[in-house]
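testing teh design pipeline on a random one, pls ignore if ur not involved
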């Protein structure tokens, strides 16, 4: 069953095109990742899906509804954590949950919701006194207070430390396991690779690839890499080896990229010169490699 259908979505701001001819489908019960560099059009896309922003043209159906014509009906069936989320500093956790639940059609009892998301001991704590991870747990609970069928999480783990980020990943999986479909907007490749059933990579307002993380990695041309430390030596000669595409050095660290039996060839060449690095490592392609191959490595203004 398809819960989101988008075709030819376009949105611009004056002369600046934010979203151009985007098309995608999201299936019921999956975690669908929308990936892309900053400014790629991810947030504008999901805002159009939620009816928060009008599209210039294109067809959009979310849970069978048009977000622009049926915005009120749609928002009663979805939940959202926006990219920039905040609450008044003095608003307490329990008050925020009560306030959000009051405007809905009835969801889980608030005490049950508090236990579910680890907010019980924070019930009377003001928003300003919450840690980053606690704030994110609260925003997830607020997005789910009325048991939505579809949930949007936009840059959910930005600014969190590694421990809080991984705890939040567990919460996202729990949302899906509870029966909701999740759209996860992120630029963290590890997050998408671990959590998402399927992803769409967006660049300069267009979808440039769609599939499961393993499918994208398998059909990409990101190649392999080996890395090692070789202080003070010139490693440029490694570029002459068969299958080597690129040799880069950062301080004493050397990275060799290419294809075929790359690790065997590089290791043999180093051994032939009496070099045996203790930290010789092989890196197989991952979603970040595919992402960089599709969107480029250059910084953008």
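output:
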């Amino acid at each position: 069953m398809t819960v989101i259908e988008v075709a030819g979505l376009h949105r611009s701001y004056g002369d600046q095109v934010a979203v151009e001819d985007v098309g995608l489908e999201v299936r019921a019960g999956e975690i669908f990742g929308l990936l892309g560099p900053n400014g790629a059009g991810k947030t504008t896309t999901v805002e159009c899906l939620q009816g928060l922003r009008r599209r210039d043209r294109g067809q959009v159906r979310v849970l069978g509804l048009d977000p622009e014509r049926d915005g009120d009906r749609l928002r009663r069936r979805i939940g959202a954590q926006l990219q920039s989320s905040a609450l008044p500093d003095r608003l307490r956790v329990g008050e925020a949950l009560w306030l959000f639940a009051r405007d809905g059609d009835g969801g889980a009892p608030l005490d049950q919701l508090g236990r579910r998301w680890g907010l019980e001991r924070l019930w009377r704590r003001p928003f300003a006194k919450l840690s980053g991870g606690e704030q994110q747990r609260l925003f997830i609970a607020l997005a789910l207070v009325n048991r939505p069928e579809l949930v949007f999480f936009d840059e959910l783990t930005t600014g969190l430390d590694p421990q809080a980020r991984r705890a939040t990943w567990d919460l996202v999986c729990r949302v899906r396991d509870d029966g909701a479909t999740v759209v996860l907007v992120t630029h963290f490749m590890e997050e998408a690779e671990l959590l998402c059933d399927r992803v769409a990579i967006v660049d300069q307002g267009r979808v440039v690839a769609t599939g499961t993380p393993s499918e994208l990695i398998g059909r990409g041309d990101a190649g392999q890499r080996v890395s090692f430390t070789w202080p003070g030596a010139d490693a440029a000669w490694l570029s002459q080896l068969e299958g080597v595409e690129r040799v880069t050095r950062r301080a004493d660290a050397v990275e060799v990229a290419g294809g075929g039996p790359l690790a065997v060839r590089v290791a043999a060449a180093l051994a032939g010169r009496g070099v045996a690095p203790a930290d010789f490592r092989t890196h197989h392609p991952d979603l970040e490699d595919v992402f960089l191959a599709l969107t480029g490595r250059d910084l953008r203004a």
